[in-house]
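Hi Y.,

Following your request, here is the sequence exactly as I used it, all 288 residues.
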Amino acid sequence: MITPILSNNYQSNYNPNFKGLEINKIPPFKNYINKTFDRFAQVSKTRWHAIDRSLEPNLKVVKKKFGDHVLHAMDINPYNEKKYIIFFHGIGQNVTSNQALYKRIIDKGYGILSCEYGNFGNNTEKLTTKSIQNTADMAIKHLKSQNINDIGVVGYSAGGFPALETAVAAGENCKFLVLISPINSLKDEFNNVAKGNMVKLPKIVKFVLKKIPFIFNSLENILNLKQTIKKNNAPTYMIYSIKDSVVPPTSTENLSKQINNLRGIVKLKEGGHSIDDGKLDAFSNLPL
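Below is the corresponding structure, written out as tokens. Let me know if you'd prefer a different format.
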């Protein structure tokens, strides 16, 4: 089912069915870890952005069922291009969050399929490797149903996980992969969030998280770019800032050394973790 958006004030109903991150026992911090990702999920389900007027006339909402799973996405292809970019946003975002990048993608001659994954946006599944693989398969099948086989994949921040899974699943049909401010693992992401102010944790919990970092090890196996990147053979580009306060530049540089077909790294002196003007310009200049 593909439904056009008729208003530039597209909103989503609040979804109370968040089931929590699928984590095995991590006593005594399981509840706090779930609380963190509950917060991320609820932010993504309530913070919807007005649709850019230049995108609105050609934007379609995709809600398409594949077996027991549903693909939630936005499809934008104003010029009926026969090549597409599949995009995945970061944690706490949704498909309305990165419209400035969508316009750059269209300017490069691509249609765009921006997909929800895990428990973000309108999705209600748990954030697991399996659910992300299901989303990757659905996105590819959706485009194939429109006779689109020439695709690229772009992932921002934690969206690098589903982007990488999609690139691997697409095989030779994936012409390139772009990772923007990539996070190496969910362990790294939670570690940074727990030390910040987004989720209010008791001081004793923050102290233990800081002094005993190995309690994050269970997160390492849920989503991990380093484990999957070796399966990817698509031409790959990376864009990041050396002033990124979420992902240390050394982490991104170490990740780049494990990429089989690295075509280019854009290392920006300014900016942070977000998709700012510098990253938008860097993306526009990639030879895609």
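Strands lie at 2-4, 59-66, 69-76, 83-88, 111-115, 150-156, 174-180, 236-241, 262-268.

Thanks again,
Q.
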